[in-house]
Amino acid sequence: MEIVNDFYDYEIIDANLGMKYERWNNTYLLRPDPLIIWENKDFKVDKLDATYIRSNKGGGYWDKETKNFMVTYHDMKFNLKQMGFKHTGLFPEQAVNWNIMRDLIKKANREIKVLNLFAYTGGATVACLKEGASVVHVDSSRGMVDWAKENIKLNKLDDKNIRYIIDDCIKFVKREIRRGNKYDSIIMDPPSYGKGANGEIWSLEKNLFELVSLCQELLSDKPLFFMINSYSGLSPTIIENILKLTNKHNNVNITVAEIGLPITNNNLILPCGIRGLITYE
Fold it and tell me: Which of 7, 30, 75, 147 is the most exposed place for a label (fewest CB within 10 A)?
């Protein structure tokens, strides 16, 4: 498992029976996490700004609204806020993936064109822009794309080569294939379920293999990397199988890893998904 140990503005302080107690810079939140199925009898909450409370009918609500807050990871900055479905607009475990992207782009020492699918609020986009790559940022939610624009501006990257696309990812990829566009790197962070810009239904189990297969048609003659991140509970072997079956290049290195976050008070690790990566020689 790959662990984020250097995100100093974020920590899971403690965890117990489906809840995690977190610090985001100077903001303290208590939020649900379905993977925390253990009981911690020493669990305690000290300073607290807000708690997300689950509803028996699905969803939930925050008991208090805090002011928007910002976190920094090395030279990257992100504006955050409480969202309706327990989230804050950032997944800190993705720092391990940002570091890989940045290192690969930097070492390539050439112009790199990146396609970021299901791009959310722009964490991976910021990482790639920081190393001089151009990015096409695609998400079906206008609100998420607007939020990404805020983060790009916060990082003083709004003068860089970036295009924002509000669209269903599969439809966009198919159009790019017809246009003959190519990318050196492709990133995707697909949800288990979602709706596209015009009501298209996304299902990870039904659509992931198709999307990964289509994306192979978009890779340039000299690709750099292809990365999938999944929170859905798919096993690493499933991700590896998909990458092996869809890959059309020789001399590749396929790796799959679980990523996670440390829990400060008891030295446990919270698993936070699977990353599949193809690098090309």
Answer: 75
